[in-house]
C-alpha cells in the first residue's frame, strides 16, 4: 500500500578491495546461517585457496564436495591416448562407477578401445541484418571473397585461436554466419566470441553499405543441443569403437552378442520415436562425472551428451560397436582445470596443460563406450534393477 515502509532485504557480504579471502568466505557462510538457520560446517571445510578463484566464481563461500570413484584400467588404442588409464568419476549415483568399471574390464580384455578425432572446432555465430534478401546474399558473397582479411582481424585477439571457415545461411533479410575456430587446449567459447566480435566490427566498418549485426544469432547453440551440432560438430567429433568377441560377452556380461545387437535395433527405433538426441544408453552419466572431476564446464553436457551408437553383428558372431560424439566440449587448460582437485584428476590421466586436449578427448570417448556396453548388457541380461538395488540405494 502507498506509504508502507518496505524493509530492506539483506545483501550478500562483499569486499570491493579483496573478495577472495577465507575471511570473506566465512562472513558469507555466517550470513547464510543467520538467514536460513542451516549449519554450513561441511560447506566451509574444503581445501580450496580463495586466492586461486578469481575468474572462476563470485561471492565464494565454500565448496560442494562430490565423492570421486576410480574406474579402470581402461585400455585405449588412440592416436593420442595410448595405454591403460584409471578414470576418476565424480558422482553421487550408486552403481555408476561399478558399471563403467565393468565395461572397462571387458574392453581392456579384448585389446582396448580404438579412438579417432574426426574434427574439432568452436563456434560463434553472428547474424547480420540487411535491407532485403538480396542484400543478405550480396553481403555473404562479399564475406566469402574476403575470408583472409576477416581471418586476420579475428586472430588479432588471440594467440591460440585460428579461424578455419565461415559457414553461411540466408533467412529472409538476415545473413546467419558460423565462425569456426581451432582453440588449442581451451574449450574456446570466450576466445571465439572475442575474435568474432573483432571480425564483425571490421566487416561493418569496411563494407560499402550500412549494416549491423548481433554477435550471436543463436545457431552456435551455446550450451544447448541442436541438430546443427550433430551435422557440423561443435567441440570435438570423436568416435570410440571396438570389435568384441562373442565369447567374451558371454563370459563377462552374461548375455550374447546377438542379443545385444537386437537391443541396439530396438533402442534406435525407440530413440527415433522419442526424438532423442542419443540412440545409445547414458553417455551423460560418464561424461558428467568425468567433467566434474576434471574441472570442465558441466553445463557443456547439454551439448556433449548427444551421441550416435552404431553396432554391427559380424559374420563370425562377434559384434562391432561404436559411439560417435559430435559435440564433445572439453579443455585441459583454462577455466576450472587449474583448480587444485580438478588439476590433480587431470594429472592422474596425464592430461593437464598444453598439448593434452586431444588425449583427454579420446579418454572421454573411450569411457563413454565402456558405460554404453555395460548398461546395455545389464538391461539385456536382466540384472539392471538388481545392480541398482545392491549398489544404488543408501536408504534403509
TrEMBL record:
The family database entries (Gene3D superfamilies) matched by this protein are listed as: 3-hydroxy-3-methylglutaryl-coenzyme A Reductase, Chain A, domain 2, Hydroxymethylglutaryl-CoA reductase, class I/II, NAD/NADP-binding domain
Listed EC numbers = 1.1.1.34
Q: Which UniProt keywords apply?
A: NADP, Oxidoreductase
Q: Name one GO molecular function term.
A: hydroxymethylglutaryl-CoA reductase (NADPH) activity
* Leader sequence residues: none
Q: Which GO terms describe its biological process?
A: coenzyme A metabolic process; isoprenoid biosynthetic process
Where on the tree of life does the source sit, at the highest rank?
Answer: Bacteria
Member of which family?
Belongs to the HMG-CoA reductase family.
Q: What is the protein's given name?
A: hydroxymethylglutaryl-CoA reductase (NADPH)
* Origin species: Kordiimonas sediminis
Amino acid at each position: 500500500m502507498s506509504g508502507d515502509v518496505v524493509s530492506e532485504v539483506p545483501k550478500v557480504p562483499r569486499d570491493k578491495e579483496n573478495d577472495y579471502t577465507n575471511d570473506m568466505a566465512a562472513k558469507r557462510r555466517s550470513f547464510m546461517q543467520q538467514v536460513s538457520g542451516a549449519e554450513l560446517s561441511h560447506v566451509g571445510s574444503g581445501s580450496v585457496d580463495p586466492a586461486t578463484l578469481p575468474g572462476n566464481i563470485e561471492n565464494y563461500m565454500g565448496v560442494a564436495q562430490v565423492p570421486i570413484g576410480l574406474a579402470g584400467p581402461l585400455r585405449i588404442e588412440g592416436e593420442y591416448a595410448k595405454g591403460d588409464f584409471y578414470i576418476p568419476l565424480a558422482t553421487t549415483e550408486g552403481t555408476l562407477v561399478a558399471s563403467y568399471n565393468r565395461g572397462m574390464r571387458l574392453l581392456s580384455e579384448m585389446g582396448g578401445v580404438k579412438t579417432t578425432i574426426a574434427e574439432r572446432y568452436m563456434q560463434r555465430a553472428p547474424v547480420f541484418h540487411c535491407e532485403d534478401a538480396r542484400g543478405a546474399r550480396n553481403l555473404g558473397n562479399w564475406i566469402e571473397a574476403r575470408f583472409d582479411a576477416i581471418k586476420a582481424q579475428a586472430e588479432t585477439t588471440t594467440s591460440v585461436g585460428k579461424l578455419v571457415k565461415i559457414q553461411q545461411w540466408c533467412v529472409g533479410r538476415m545473413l546467419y554466419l558460423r565462425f569456426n575456430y581451432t582453440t588449442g587446449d581451451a574449450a574456446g567459447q570466450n576466445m571465439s566470441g572475442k575474435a568474432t566480435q573483432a571480425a564483425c566490427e571490421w566487416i561493418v566498418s569496411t563494407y560499402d553499405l550500412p549494416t549491423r549485426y548481433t554477435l550471436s544469432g543463436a545457431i552456435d547453440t551455446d550450451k544447448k543441443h541442436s541438430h546443427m551440432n550433430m551435422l557440423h560438430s561443435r567441440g570435438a567429433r570423436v568416435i570410440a569403437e571396438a570389435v568384441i568377441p562373442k565369447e567374451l560377452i558371454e563370459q563377462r556380461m552374461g548375455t550374447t552378442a546377438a542379443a545385444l545387437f537386437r537391443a541396439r535395433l530396438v533402442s534406435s527405433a525407440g530413440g527415433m520415436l522419442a526424438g532423442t538426441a542419443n540412440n545409445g544408453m547414458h553417455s551423460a552419466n560418464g561424461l558428467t562425472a568425468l567433467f566434474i572431476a576434471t574441472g570442465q564446464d558441466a553445463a557443456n553436457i547439454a551439448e556433449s551428451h548427444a551421441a550416435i551408437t552404431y553396432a554391427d553383428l559380424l559374420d563370425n558372431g562377434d559384434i562391432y560397436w561404436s559411439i560417435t560424439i559430435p559435440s564433445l566440449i572439453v579443455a585441459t587448460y583454462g577455466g576450472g582445470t587449474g583448480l587444485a582437485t580438478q588439476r590433480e584428476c587431470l594429472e592422474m590421466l596425464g592430461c593437464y596443460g598444453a598439448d593434452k586436449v586431444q588425449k583427454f578427448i579420446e579418454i572421454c570417448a573411450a569411457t563413454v563406450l565402456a558405460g554404453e556396453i555395460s548398461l546395455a548388457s545389464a538391461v539385456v541380461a536382466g540384472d539392471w534393477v538388481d545392480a541398482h538395488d545392491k549398489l544404488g540405494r543408501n536408504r534403509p
